[in-house]
Amino acid sequence: MPNIDTLKRIENFFHLANEKIYNNEEKVICRKGKKETISGFCTILQTLLDNTHEVAKNSKASFEIQAQVQSWIDYASLYIYAGKEDKHICKQLLQELNSYLEDKSYFVGQSLTVADIAVFYTIYDLMKRQTPLEKENLLNLSRWFDHLQQIDDIRQNLEQINFTTIYLHGWATGTR
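Above: the chain sequence. Below: its structure as tokens.
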């Protein structure tokens, strides 16, 4: 399951009051609010969409978009996060995401949704570990990721990952 830091970053993105976020004894992520405690990454994200932020509105624009957003949140939680430690699974996941983004700017619809934000935070460490050549081979995913990291509210205090490819070619920089 995605970690506490991921959920706090999403909470910060929506400019929500930082509620207590913790893992219970069963290692399920929980968010303790004023009225109730909500368990489970996907369930918590759904409750965060009950605000007036533009991305929250984009994420609930129609039943179809809501279903697609939920699918990507599930994918981030169940597949990407679970496979982050196996380099072969990571490579396959990143290639799948890259292929999916071949003709898209965002994972759902024509604007930023919580699906993009959830996937961004889930793959941040994976993208940071990629070599320049690997990032270049993931051109669609790199384009999408670089676009999102340029948004200050998304990047927050994360280190900006370099996607400049000119230094890949020694002849281009005169360092050959």
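Residues 49 and 56 are 5 Å apart (CA to CA).
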